[in-house]
Amino acid sequence: MPRFNRNDTVNLLRKMTLKRMGNAFLVFFSFQWSRIIGRPVQWGLPLSVSFEPTTSCNLRCPECPSGLRAFSRPTGMLKKDFFRETIDEIHEHLIYLIFYFQGEPYLNPDFLDMVKYASSKKIYTATSTNAHYLNDEAAKKTVESGLDRLIISIDGTTQDVYKQYRVGGNLDKVIEGAKNIIKWRTALNSKTPFVFFQFLVVKPNEHQIEDIKKLAEEIGVDEVRFKTAQVYDYENDPNGLIPLQDKYSRYKIGKDGKYKPKNKMVNRCWKLWHANVITWDGLVVPCCFDKDAMHQMGDLKSGSFKTIWKSVAYKKFRASLMTGRKNIDICSNCSEGASVWKDA
Fold it and tell me: Would 162 disulfide with which of 147, 156, 204, 304, CB 3.0-4.6 Å?
């Protein structure tokens, strides 16, 4: 499990209000009650929402729709006025806001303005970046924006290994970006953002697990977390990504000699009660596994978030999950319960 970080935990708790705690109570118990009665009920609003700043990305990662330019949905940039309207509607109940779905957030020129606006509403904010755009100025603005958590994806400690997954990437820029953030966090005497390296463990880099811990310590980031890789065609693994170390893999070899997901396909999912995703153009989808927004619960351009959250479409989707999750395409390769963390 992730190492307890006092500053980060205290920071999160300070965001809590009676209304947010009351909403969290309602959401949790509606999920448990749904399990008991065998049908979905939803008594609160989401605790966590992911907003997609952009679908654009500078890299070409082999298992990423954004990197592969493989979307069937439109690509574009989140507009800050549209973002503010949505946040104004839900901020009183919202605890955690993730600025990430697909793409590289820092490519959106309004990204840090949106972070600053969410921070002004006392929402815990987080983002994930490949760190290629964290130059000195951007790092300073990031700290000043009030961002609470910065996840830096770094999947190798040498350029030859790093570029095997982060195709088109430059490891030196990632390291420089991380150093810039730590420098400005110190210079501005700020306790935020909480910074950690996220290391996606794949076959080409699994021998560098100890090395990334040492690099993180040298730079001064707060933690290292290891993530298992989602492989779309896991039976054949065409890019040779599934690691040899079983603990870092989402998959295991079945009796037929082919890989299959480790996770058990139980007919429940906490995410469907406490979180969701909003695409750059306002589509509301159930979770981060719906990369192409094929399961649209609603469109914020034509309806309010609260109406969509309680809609018939959402109720039907939750009900279908509770009766046959294995029949839902985005659930078949889901990593719930299959991630691995390890402290720096």
Answer: 156
